[in-house]
Protein backbone atom coordinates (compact mmCIF):
# COMPACT_ATOMS: atom_id res chain seq x y z
CA UNK A 1 0.00 0.00 0.00
CA UNK A 2 1.09 3.54 -0.59
CA UNK A 3 -0.17 7.09 -0.96
CA UNK A 4 -0.95 6.41 -4.67
CA UNK A 5 -3.37 3.60 -3.96
CA UNK A 6 -4.94 4.94 -0.75
CA UNK A 7 -5.23 8.72 -1.06
CA UNK A 8 -6.42 11.31 -3.56
CA UNK A 9 -6.02 15.09 -3.33
CA UNK A 10 -8.92 17.53 -3.16
CA UNK A 11 -7.78 18.84 -6.56
CA UNK A 12 -7.93 15.38 -8.08
CA UNK A 13 -11.34 14.82 -6.53
CA UNK A 14 -12.75 18.06 -7.92
CA UNK A 15 -11.45 17.18 -11.40
CA UNK A 16 -12.95 13.68 -11.27
CA UNK A 17 -16.44 14.32 -9.94
CA UNK A 18 -17.97 13.07 -13.20
CA UNK A 19 -15.60 10.16 -13.80
CA UNK A 20 -17.52 6.88 -14.28
CA UNK A 21 -16.75 4.09 -11.83
CA UNK A 22 -16.10 6.44 -8.91
CA UNK A 23 -18.51 6.77 -6.01
CA UNK A 24 -17.93 9.71 -3.67
CA UNK A 25 -19.13 8.98 -0.15
CA UNK A 26 -19.30 11.40 2.77
CA UNK A 27 -19.08 9.64 6.14
CA UNK A 28 -19.89 11.31 9.42
CA UNK A 29 -21.60 10.72 12.67
CA UNK A 30 -23.61 13.89 12.32
CA UNK A 31 -24.91 13.95 8.75
CA UNK A 32 -26.37 17.46 9.01
CA UNK A 33 -23.12 18.65 7.39
CA UNK A 34 -23.94 16.53 4.33
CA UNK A 35 -27.51 17.77 4.27
CA UNK A 36 -26.32 21.38 4.34
CA UNK A 37 -24.00 20.87 1.36
CA UNK A 38 -21.60 18.17 0.18
CA UNK A 39 -19.15 17.41 -2.60
CA UNK A 40 -21.28 17.39 -5.77
CA UNK A 41 -22.46 13.86 -6.55
CA UNK A 42 -21.52 12.38 -3.17
CA UNK A 43 -23.81 10.04 -1.26
CA UNK A 44 -23.72 9.75 2.53
CA UNK A 45 -23.08 7.06 5.09
CA UNK A 46 -24.02 7.61 8.72
CA UNK A 47 -21.31 6.19 11.00
CA UNK A 48 -23.80 5.30 13.70
CA UNK A 49 -27.00 4.43 11.85
CA UNK A 50 -25.50 2.67 8.84
CA UNK A 51 -22.30 1.08 10.14
CA UNK A 52 -23.21 0.01 13.70
CA UNK A 53 -25.58 -2.78 14.64
CA UNK A 54 -28.73 -1.14 16.05
CA UNK A 55 -28.87 -3.46 19.08
CA UNK A 56 -25.59 -5.18 19.86
CA UNK A 57 -22.42 -3.17 20.34
CA UNK A 58 -20.74 -4.28 17.13
CA UNK A 59 -20.43 -3.61 13.44
CA UNK A 60 -23.09 -4.45 10.94
CA UNK A 61 -22.33 -7.99 9.80
CA UNK A 62 -21.43 -9.20 6.31
CA UNK A 63 -25.06 -9.55 5.19
CA UNK A 64 -26.02 -6.15 6.61
CA UNK A 65 -23.03 -4.56 4.86
CA UNK A 66 -24.04 -6.19 1.57
CA UNK A 67 -27.60 -4.92 1.98
CA UNK A 68 -26.37 -1.40 2.83
CA UNK A 69 -24.04 -1.08 -0.16
CA UNK A 70 -26.57 -2.65 -2.53
CA UNK A 71 -29.23 -0.22 -1.38
CA UNK A 72 -26.86 2.77 -1.77
CA UNK A 73 -25.90 1.67 -5.28
CA UNK A 74 -22.26 0.75 -4.74
CA UNK A 75 -20.83 -2.12 -6.85
CA UNK A 76 -17.91 -4.39 -6.07
CA UNK A 77 -15.91 -2.91 -8.95
CA UNK A 78 -16.58 0.75 -8.06
CA UNK A 79 -13.76 2.85 -6.67
CA UNK A 80 -15.09 4.32 -3.43
CA UNK A 81 -13.77 7.81 -2.63
CA UNK A 82 -14.35 8.61 1.05
CA UNK A 83 -14.23 11.92 2.88
CA UNK A 84 -15.74 13.48 5.98
CA UNK A 85 -15.47 15.95 8.81
CA UNK A 86 -13.42 15.63 12.01
CA UNK A 87 -10.21 15.48 9.97
CA UNK A 88 -11.50 12.37 8.16
CA UNK A 89 -11.87 10.31 11.37
CA UNK A 90 -15.10 8.66 10.32
CA UNK A 91 -14.05 8.46 6.67
CA UNK A 92 -10.90 6.63 7.79
CA UNK A 93 -13.09 4.39 9.93
CA UNK A 94 -15.25 3.67 6.87
CA UNK A 95 -12.12 3.05 4.80
CA UNK A 96 -11.01 0.45 7.34
CA UNK A 97 -14.54 -0.99 7.30
CA UNK A 98 -14.59 -1.31 3.48
CA UNK A 99 -11.19 -3.06 3.71
CA UNK A 100 -12.49 -5.31 6.50
CA UNK A 101 -15.23 -6.53 4.14
CA UNK A 102 -12.78 -6.89 1.26
CA UNK A 103 -13.64 -3.95 -1.01
CA UNK A 104 -10.78 -3.64 -3.50
CA UNK A 105 -10.61 0.01 -4.54
CA UNK A 106 -11.01 2.58 -1.76
CA UNK A 107 -9.44 6.02 -1.40
CA UNK A 108 -9.57 8.85 1.12
CA UNK A 109 -9.67 12.48 0.01
CA UNK A 110 -6.67 14.06 1.71
CA UNK A 111 -7.94 16.65 4.20
CA UNK A 112 -11.60 15.66 3.88
CA UNK A 113 -14.30 18.27 4.33
CA UNK A 114 -11.97 20.67 6.10
CA UNK A 115 -9.53 21.00 3.21
CA UNK A 116 -12.50 21.29 0.82
CA UNK A 117 -13.97 24.11 2.94
CA UNK A 118 -10.69 25.98 3.52
CA UNK A 119 -10.01 25.82 -0.24
CA UNK A 120 -13.50 27.31 -0.75
CA UNK A 121 -14.44 24.50 -3.17
CA UNK A 122 -18.07 24.05 -4.31
CA UNK A 123 -20.84 22.19 -2.45
CA UNK A 124 -24.12 20.78 -3.67
CA UNK A 125 -27.37 20.06 -1.83
CA UNK A 126 -28.59 17.66 -4.55
CA UNK A 127 -28.86 14.10 -3.33
CA UNK A 128 -27.92 11.73 -6.16
CA UNK A 129 -30.10 8.71 -6.89
CA UNK A 130 -28.06 5.62 -7.67
CA UNK A 131 -29.39 2.38 -9.16
CA UNK A 132 -29.49 -0.43 -6.64
CA UNK A 133 -26.76 -3.03 -6.99
CA UNK A 134 -26.17 -6.55 -5.78
CA UNK A 135 -23.09 -6.13 -3.62
CA UNK A 136 -21.12 -9.13 -2.37
CA UNK A 137 -18.97 -8.63 0.73
CA UNK A 138 -16.18 -10.95 1.76
CA UNK A 139 -15.91 -12.49 5.22
CA UNK A 140 -14.42 -9.96 7.69
CA UNK A 141 -10.65 -9.71 7.44
CA UNK A 142 -9.68 -10.09 11.10
CA UNK A 143 -6.05 -9.40 10.28
CA UNK A 144 -6.91 -5.71 10.65
CA UNK A 145 -9.31 -5.87 13.64
CA UNK A 146 -8.18 -6.47 17.23
CA UNK A 147 -10.36 -7.74 20.08
CA UNK A 148 -9.93 -7.21 23.81
CA UNK A 149 -8.23 -10.48 24.80
CA UNK A 150 -5.64 -10.00 22.12
CA UNK A 151 -5.05 -6.46 23.36
CA UNK A 152 -4.46 -7.62 26.95
CA UNK A 153 -2.01 -10.24 25.64
CA UNK A 154 -0.22 -7.60 23.60
CA UNK A 155 0.83 -5.63 26.71
CA UNK A 156 4.62 -5.50 26.72
CA UNK A 157 4.74 -7.67 23.57
CA UNK A 158 3.35 -5.75 20.59
CA UNK A 159 3.34 -2.07 19.76
CA UNK A 160 0.28 -0.54 21.38
CA UNK A 161 -0.37 2.94 20.04
CA UNK A 162 -2.73 5.16 22.01
CA UNK A 163 -3.83 7.89 19.60
CA UNK A 164 -5.96 9.93 22.01
CA UNK A 165 -4.91 13.35 23.28
CA UNK A 166 -2.16 13.46 25.96
CA UNK A 167 -4.69 14.33 28.68
CA UNK A 168 -6.85 11.32 27.80
CA UNK A 169 -3.73 9.11 27.75
CA UNK A 170 -2.71 10.28 31.20
CA UNK A 171 -6.22 9.85 32.62
CA UNK A 172 -6.82 13.57 33.16
CA UNK A 173 -9.67 13.60 30.60
CA UNK A 174 -12.06 10.75 29.76
CA UNK A 175 -13.19 11.95 26.34
CA UNK A 176 -12.08 14.40 23.66
CA UNK A 177 -12.44 17.95 24.90
CA UNK A 178 -15.40 18.76 22.67
CA UNK A 179 -17.52 16.24 24.62
CA UNK A 180 -18.83 16.23 28.19
CA UNK A 181 -16.45 14.36 30.47
CA UNK A 182 -18.88 12.28 32.55
CA UNK A 183 -18.22 8.66 31.53
CA UNK A 184 -18.62 5.26 33.13
CA UNK A 185 -15.15 3.86 32.48
CA UNK A 186 -11.89 4.47 34.34
CA UNK A 187 -9.30 6.90 32.99
CA UNK A 188 -5.76 6.09 31.88
CA UNK A 189 -4.18 3.91 29.20
CA UNK A 190 -3.17 0.32 28.41
CA UNK A 191 0.21 -0.32 30.09
CA UNK A 192 3.20 -0.12 27.69
CA UNK A 193 1.17 1.81 25.08
CA UNK A 194 3.04 4.68 23.49
CA UNK A 195 1.22 7.99 23.13
CA UNK A 196 1.07 9.27 19.58
CA UNK A 197 -2.01 11.46 19.23
CA UNK A 198 -3.68 10.96 15.81
CA UNK A 199 -3.27 14.70 15.28
CA UNK A 200 0.51 14.30 15.01
CA UNK A 201 -0.10 12.65 11.64
CA UNK A 202 -2.15 15.51 10.24
CA UNK A 203 -1.41 19.01 9.10
CA UNK A 204 -3.57 21.85 10.38
CA UNK A 205 -5.72 21.71 7.22
CA UNK A 206 -6.48 18.04 7.83
CA UNK A 207 -4.15 16.62 5.15
CA UNK A 208 -1.68 13.90 6.08
CA UNK A 209 1.95 14.78 6.71
CA UNK A 210 4.60 13.47 4.30
CA UNK A 211 5.78 9.86 4.53
CA UNK A 212 9.16 11.10 5.80
CA UNK A 213 7.57 13.19 8.55
CA UNK A 214 5.25 10.32 9.51
CA UNK A 215 8.04 7.74 9.68
CA UNK A 216 10.01 10.12 11.93
CA UNK A 217 7.06 10.76 14.27
CA UNK A 218 6.35 7.07 14.96
CA UNK A 219 10.04 6.16 15.05
CA UNK A 220 10.82 8.82 17.65
CA UNK A 221 7.77 7.79 19.70
CA UNK A 222 9.28 4.31 20.01
CA UNK A 223 7.25 2.28 17.51
CA UNK A 224 9.27 -0.90 16.85
CA UNK A 225 8.98 -1.73 13.14
CA UNK A 226 9.81 -5.40 13.76
CA UNK A 227 6.69 -5.92 15.91
CA UNK A 228 2.98 -6.13 15.18
CA UNK A 229 0.95 -3.06 16.06
CA UNK A 230 -2.46 -2.39 17.58
CA UNK A 231 -3.87 1.14 17.53
CA UNK A 232 -6.69 2.29 19.79
CA UNK A 233 -8.46 5.46 20.91
CA UNK A 234 -11.81 5.90 22.69
CA UNK A 235 -14.29 4.39 20.22
CA UNK A 236 -12.07 3.30 17.33
CA UNK A 237 -12.44 6.08 14.78
CA UNK A 238 -9.39 8.21 15.60
CA UNK A 239 -7.37 4.98 15.69
CA UNK A 240 -8.69 4.17 12.19
CA UNK A 241 -6.95 7.38 11.12
CA UNK A 242 -3.67 6.12 12.62
CA UNK A 243 -4.27 2.59 11.26
CA UNK A 244 -4.60 4.21 7.83
CA UNK A 245 -1.30 6.03 8.29
CA UNK A 246 0.66 3.01 9.50
CA UNK A 247 -0.84 0.39 7.20
CA UNK A 248 -1.87 2.25 4.05
CA UNK A 249 0.59 5.15 3.88
CA UNK A 250 3.71 3.77 5.58
CA UNK A 251 3.03 0.17 4.52
CA UNK A 252 3.59 -1.55 7.88
CA UNK A 253 2.61 -5.21 7.59
CA UNK A 254 0.61 -6.21 10.64
CA UNK A 255 -1.45 -3.33 11.97
CA UNK A 256 -4.80 -3.79 13.68
CA UNK A 257 -7.40 -1.33 14.85
CA UNK A 258 -8.91 -2.07 18.28
CA UNK A 259 -12.37 -0.61 17.71
CA UNK A 260 -13.54 -1.51 21.23
CA UNK A 261 -10.89 0.97 22.35
CA UNK A 262 -11.06 2.80 25.65
CA UNK A 263 -14.83 2.64 26.10
CA UNK A 264 -14.39 -1.14 26.26
CA UNK A 265 -10.95 -1.49 27.84
CA UNK A 266 -11.57 1.16 30.52
CA UNK A 267 -14.74 -0.70 31.57
CA UNK A 268 -13.21 -4.20 31.85
CA UNK A 269 -12.92 -5.71 35.32
CA UNK A 270 -9.44 -6.67 36.41
CA UNK A 271 -7.29 -5.48 33.51
CA UNK A 272 -4.20 -3.38 34.23
CA UNK A 273 -4.35 0.40 33.65
CA UNK A 274 -1.45 2.86 33.65
CA UNK A 275 -1.92 6.48 34.75
CA UNK A 276 0.20 9.48 33.88
CA UNK A 277 2.25 10.49 30.88
CA UNK A 278 4.59 7.46 30.75
CA UNK A 279 3.73 4.13 29.02
CA UNK A 280 4.13 2.20 32.30
CA UNK A 281 5.26 -1.36 32.93
CA UNK A 282 3.81 -4.66 31.69
CA UNK B 1 -34.45 5.85 36.03
CA UNK B 2 -31.33 5.26 34.01
CA UNK B 3 -29.80 1.82 34.17
CA UNK B 4 -26.03 1.33 33.88
CA UNK B 5 -26.63 -0.45 30.57
CA UNK B 6 -28.28 2.56 28.98
CA UNK B 7 -25.49 4.77 30.33
CA UNK B 8 -22.96 2.68 28.45
CA UNK B 9 -25.10 2.78 25.34
CA UNK B 10 -25.39 6.55 25.59
CA UNK B 11 -21.64 6.92 25.93
CA UNK B 12 -21.02 4.76 22.92
CA UNK B 13 -23.74 6.42 20.93
CA UNK B 14 -22.29 9.82 21.78
CA UNK B 15 -19.32 8.92 19.61
CA UNK B 16 -16.60 11.40 18.98
CA UNK B 17 -18.30 13.85 16.65
CA UNK B 18 -18.98 17.26 18.05
CA UNK B 19 -22.44 17.94 19.43
CA UNK B 20 -24.54 20.67 17.85
CA UNK B 21 -22.50 23.81 18.52
CA UNK B 22 -25.47 26.14 18.38
CA UNK B 23 -27.51 24.31 21.00
CA UNK B 24 -27.68 25.52 24.57
CA UNK B 25 -25.80 23.38 27.09
CA UNK B 26 -27.56 20.05 27.68
CA UNK B 27 -29.18 19.85 31.12
CA UNK B 28 -27.05 16.77 31.85
CA UNK B 29 -23.89 18.91 31.86
CA UNK B 30 -22.84 19.56 35.44
CA UNK B 31 -21.15 22.98 35.52
CA UNK B 32 -19.74 22.26 38.98
CA UNK B 33 -17.63 19.59 37.29
CA UNK B 34 -17.21 20.67 33.68
CA UNK B 35 -14.89 23.37 32.36
CA UNK B 36 -16.65 24.81 29.32
CA UNK B 37 -14.78 27.08 26.91
CA UNK B 38 -17.20 28.73 24.53
CA UNK B 39 -17.43 31.77 22.29
CA UNK B 40 -18.15 33.24 18.88
CA UNK B 41 -15.90 33.49 15.81
CA UNK B 42 -16.05 36.83 14.00
CA UNK B 43 -14.27 38.18 10.91
CA UNK B 44 -12.49 41.52 10.49
CA UNK B 45 -15.86 43.22 9.80
CA UNK B 46 -17.32 41.89 13.04
CA UNK B 47 -19.60 39.42 11.23
CA UNK B 48 -20.07 35.96 12.73
CA UNK B 49 -18.24 33.17 10.91
CA UNK B 50 -19.99 29.80 10.63
CA UNK B 51 -18.15 26.76 9.32
CA UNK B 52 -14.82 27.78 10.91
CA UNK B 53 -12.60 24.97 12.22
CA UNK B 54 -11.91 25.82 15.86
CA UNK B 55 -9.23 23.79 17.60
CA UNK B 56 -8.26 23.54 21.26
CA UNK B 57 -4.54 23.23 22.00
CA UNK B 58 -3.27 22.32 25.47
CA UNK B 59 -0.65 24.18 27.52
CA UNK B 60 2.16 22.58 25.50
CA UNK B 61 0.53 23.49 22.18
CA UNK B 62 -0.65 19.90 21.56
CA UNK B 63 -3.90 19.44 19.64
CA UNK B 64 -6.73 18.39 21.95
CA UNK B 65 -9.99 18.85 20.06
CA UNK B 66 -11.61 20.55 17.09
CA UNK B 67 -15.16 21.64 16.36
CA UNK B 68 -16.88 23.45 13.50
CA UNK B 69 -18.54 26.74 14.44
CA UNK B 70 -22.32 26.88 14.06
CA UNK B 71 -24.02 29.19 11.51
CA UNK B 72 -24.10 31.73 14.38
CA UNK B 73 -20.32 31.38 14.79
CA UNK B 74 -20.61 29.54 18.12
CA UNK B 75 -18.10 26.94 19.32
CA UNK B 76 -17.77 25.03 22.60
CA UNK B 77 -15.26 22.74 24.32
CA UNK B 78 -15.39 20.64 27.47
CA UNK B 79 -11.88 20.95 28.87
CA UNK B 80 -10.26 21.07 32.31
CA UNK B 81 -9.07 24.03 34.38
CA UNK B 82 -5.78 25.48 33.07
CA UNK B 83 -4.23 27.30 30.16
CA UNK B 84 -5.48 26.53 26.63
CA UNK B 85 -5.07 28.02 23.19
CA UNK B 86 -8.14 28.30 20.98
CA UNK B 87 -7.30 28.61 17.28
CA UNK B 88 -9.70 29.09 14.35
CA UNK B 89 -9.14 28.38 10.64
CA UNK B 90 -11.69 29.61 8.12
CA UNK B 91 -12.30 30.79 4.57
CA UNK B 92 -11.96 34.30 6.05
CA UNK B 93 -8.56 33.71 7.62
CA UNK B 94 -7.23 32.45 10.94
CA UNK B 95 -6.96 33.66 14.53
CA UNK B 96 -6.07 32.43 18.00
CA UNK B 97 -6.37 33.30 21.66
CA UNK B 98 -4.92 32.00 24.95
CA UNK B 99 -7.47 31.36 27.69
CA UNK B 100 -6.97 30.53 31.39
CA UNK B 101 -10.02 28.42 32.05
CA UNK B 102 -11.73 27.76 35.38
CA UNK B 103 -14.54 25.35 36.18
CA UNK B 104 -17.89 26.53 34.81
CA UNK B 105 -18.41 28.51 31.62
CA UNK B 106 -15.48 30.48 30.14
CA UNK B 107 -16.61 32.80 27.34
CA UNK B 108 -14.19 34.19 24.76
CA UNK B 109 -14.41 36.18 21.51
CA UNK B 110 -12.25 34.90 18.67
CA UNK B 111 -11.45 37.10 15.67
CA UNK B 112 -10.18 35.72 12.36
CA UNK B 113 -8.49 37.71 9.61
CA UNK B 114 -6.32 37.03 6.59
CA UNK B 115 -2.68 37.74 7.38
TrEMBL record, chain A:
PROSITE patterns: RHODANESE_1 (PS00380), RHODANESE_2 (PS00683), RHODANESE_3 (PS50206). Pfam families: Rhodanese (PF00581). Residues 18-125, 160-274 form the Rhodanese domain. This is Sulfurtransferase. Gene3D superfamilies: Rhodanese-like domain (3.40.250.10). It comes from the Bacteria. Keywords: Repeat, Transferase. It catalyses: thiosulfate + hydrogen cyanide = thiocyanate + sulfite + 2 H(+). InterPro entries: Rhodanese-like_dom, Rhodanese-like_dom_sf, Thiosulfate_sulfurtransferase, Thiosulphate_STrfase_CS. GO terms for molecular function: thiosulfate-cyanide sulfurtransferase activity.
Automatic annotation (TrEMBL), chain B:
It holds the Pfam family DUF1416. InterPro entries: DUF1416 (IPR010814). It comes from the Bacteria. This is Uncharacterized protein DUF1416.
Amino acid sequence: MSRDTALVSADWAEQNLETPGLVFVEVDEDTTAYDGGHIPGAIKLDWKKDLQDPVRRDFVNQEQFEALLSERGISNDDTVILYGGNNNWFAAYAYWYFKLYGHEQVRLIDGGRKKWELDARPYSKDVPVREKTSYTAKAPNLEIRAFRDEVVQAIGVKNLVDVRSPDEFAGRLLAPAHLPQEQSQRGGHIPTAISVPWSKAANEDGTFKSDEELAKIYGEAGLDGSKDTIAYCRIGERSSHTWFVLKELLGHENVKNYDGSWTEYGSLIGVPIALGDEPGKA
Amino acid sequence: MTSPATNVAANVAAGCAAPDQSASLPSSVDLAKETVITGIVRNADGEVVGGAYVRLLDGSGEFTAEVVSSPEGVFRFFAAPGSWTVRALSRHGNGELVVDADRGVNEIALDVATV
